[in-house]
Amino acid sequence: MVFVLRLALVWFGILGTDLHWQKAQIAFLGIRRIGMLYYMQYAFARAEFRGHAALWAVVACTALLFTFLHKMTSTSLVQMTERQKRL
Fold first, then answer.
1. Is the dihedral of CA 74, 75, 81, 85 positive or negative?
2. What is the reported pLDDT for 16?
3. Under DSSP, is residue 49 helix (H, G, I), strand (E, B) or coil?
4. Which residue did the predictor score with more confidence, 80 or 27?
5. Distance (Å, whole) CA 52 – CA 57
6. Among 2, 19, 27, 34, which one has the highest count of C-beta atoms within 10 angstroms of its own C-beta?
């Protein structure tokens, strides 16, 4: 589910642009996990939230899941790009 949703969001984000496949790959494999953690900490430092621990758990699990997806897909995407460059 997360894999399909992330891919759909990337394609939606580049819809109507002249971005090439390599840029779509960068968008798909981009560094989002650091931003999630940074902005969560920033928000918690500025305001009071109920369920502080639960929110951290959700963000941490999401970051781990996307890290796993990145590791599972990055090698094949880079290999696909290299094959396309040779054609």
1. positive
2. 74
3. coil
4. 80
5. 9
6. 27
